[in-house]
Amino acid sequence: MNIARAGLYSAIGTAARLVAGLVVVKLVAWAAGPDGVGKLGQFMSLMSLLAVLAGGGISAAIVKYVAEYRDDPERLARLLRAALGYALCAAVLMGLAALLFSRQLALWLLDDVRYESLLRVLAFAQVGIAFSNYLLAVINGFMDVRRLVFIQVVGSALSIALAAWLSWQQGLYGALLALVLGQLLWLAIGLPAWWRSPDFRPGMLRAGFDRDMIVRLATFSLMTLSSALCAPLVNIAVRDHLAAQFGWEQVGYWQAVTRVSDAYLLFLTTAINVYYLPRLAAVREREELKRELAQAWRQLLPAAAVLALLVYVAREWVTRALFSADFAAANALYGPQLIGDVIKIGSFVLSYLMLAKAMTGLFVLSEFVFAASYLGLVFVFTRWYGLPGAVYAFALNYLFYLFFNLLVARRYLRRL
């Protein structure tokens, strides 16, 4: 299977996830307007942050090592026992932390203590979310794309129904609650589907401790955690800055455009995750690795450019369809954002080389450096250009990141 075929298979599951996400955004836009969409972005950043921390940040590590050890049953069993134990311990710790600081988080992120109970629900859900992420990562590592797609489609359909019902009952609060409960629905669908997999063994559901495997997972998780921590935290900081400078309504316009970007890029990033990471982890020959990198660029960059162009041409219709006429001011932000999206995909193709080959120190350093540079550029450009400065900063920062990854890839291939 190549990346194009993997992308084709995963497109169905991606479309289901995309529709589910856009339904929630649409419901929030109807119920609470631009202000509510801005707060939705804050809550989703917190969920992303907790989901990665609760699982110990090892989903990508599980994908990598399952791909490597799938023909070595003894090492695979050791890896999965250690991974499950690691993830569950991290989930309990993060759940307790979220429970302890639920009031402060509600005030900081959502400006309303009434959301404290929602944060408590999120805290208690961490163990289930961590187990769901473990399950999906194992299936991904075996490259069982069809089973992964089935879980995504059914889980997303149930999530849409739940979001519609809860938002109708409780408005913005209900829509946010549906995001949490929807993660647990994926687990309810995923477990029976996994049990029927030819790769499934009962021992894969047993947690354990294996020092060697824990060290491998912990080392690799530094890369995932640095990426997962930086993105939500920086986005939270950007929203806080934009809200302080321009108000939450303006944050809603910026959030709307970034949500559209996340939505259509999901088709490409899912293909990269499903096929590219396990494939790069398994490739050891220089020429074969060069072919994989070249193939990914030839297929993904034109696809990103075409999708970005289509979104730009249809931006007014997209904004009205996904949000409402109240979001018309967001249309002026699409151009720089979409240029940044194309550059982002080009840089991601190369950055996955650092993940697959466990270049831990370099990857962690780059994540923090470019997160800091993005935040700095936002502060500077919004002072010069107002709200559009935030999307200018996004595009320029990813251009710098692309140049960095080109240097890293050339250096690695020369030394291989």
TrEMBL record:
One of its GO terms (cellular component) is plasma membrane. The chain crosses the membrane at residues 7-31, 43-67, 79-101, 121-142, 149-166, 172-194, 214-236, 256-276, 296-314, 334-355, 362-384, 390-409. One of its GO terms (biological process) is enterobacterial common antigen biosynthetic process. Keywords: Cell membrane, Membrane, Transmembrane, Transmembrane helix. This is Polysaccharide transporter, PST family. It is found in: Cell membrane. It comes from Dyella marensis. It is a multi-pass membrane protein.
